[in-house]
Fold this sequence. Notes:
- The complex is a heterodimer.
- Chain A has strands at residues 4-7, 10-14, 19-25, 32-38, 44-51, 56-59, 62-67, 72-77, 86-93, 101-103, 107-112.
- Chain A is mainly beta.
- In chain B, strand 5 (45-51) and strand 6 form a beta hairpin.
Amino acid sequence: KQEVTQIPAALSVPEGENLVLNCSFTDSAIYNLQWFRQDPGKGLTSLLLIQSSQREQTSGRLNASLDKSSGRSTLYIAASQPGDSATYLCAVTRYSSASKIIFGSGTRLSIRP
Amino acid sequence: GAVVSQHPSRVICKSGTSVKIECRSLDFQATTMFWYRQFPKQSLMLMATSNEGSKATYEQGVEKDKFLINHASLTLSTLTVTSAHPEDSSFYICSAGTLAGVGGTQYFGPGTRLLVL
C-alpha cells in the first residue's frame, strides 16, 4: 500500500530565505509525482508535475526533484515571499493519469514578513 | 489547462437531509472521476473512484450506501451524501482524469464545502 509522508508538518521562516520541503513515498512504482498548493479553505493549485522518467521540474522560483529509486522528492522554494504562505501537498499517481492519487499530509508553510 | 467545475461551492443543510454535489469536466471527456474528502487541517483522502457507465469503487471505510456516486456521462459525476449528519461536514473535492496519452494528468475541481447543522 502506497504511503506518502511529508516533513516537516509545519515550517515558519523569515521572508527571503530559501527552503526545502520533503516528501517520501513507500512504493517506487509511480506514474508521476505532483506538488500542489492549497490556501486555507480553497481548492488545489498544481505547482509542478514530474513524470516517473524525469528527475526534476522547474517553474519560476520553484524546483521539484524526484528520486524514484529512493522514494523521495523535494520542493525547493527560492527567495520566499509572504505570498508563498500556504499548505503544500505532495501526491503520487501509480499507473496512469486515470489512476487514483495518494496525497501526503502536507506541510503548512508560513513566511514571516 | 483543462477545467473541472463543482457545484455548489458551499452548502449548508439540516441533519437528515440529502445533498448532491456535481463535478463537471468542462472541456474534455473524463474517463475516470475521483471524489476526495478533506477534514480541517488534514490531507485529502480518496473516497471513491468512478468510471463512466459503471459502479463506483469505494475505498475501505467509506459507506457506499451513504455516499452515492453516479457517473452518467464522460463529463459529469455526482456525489450524493444521504441522510447527512454533522460528522459529514467536510470539504469535498473531485478530480477528473483521462487516458489521453503519456503525460496526462488529473484536474481538480475547486471543492465544495458542506456544513451539516
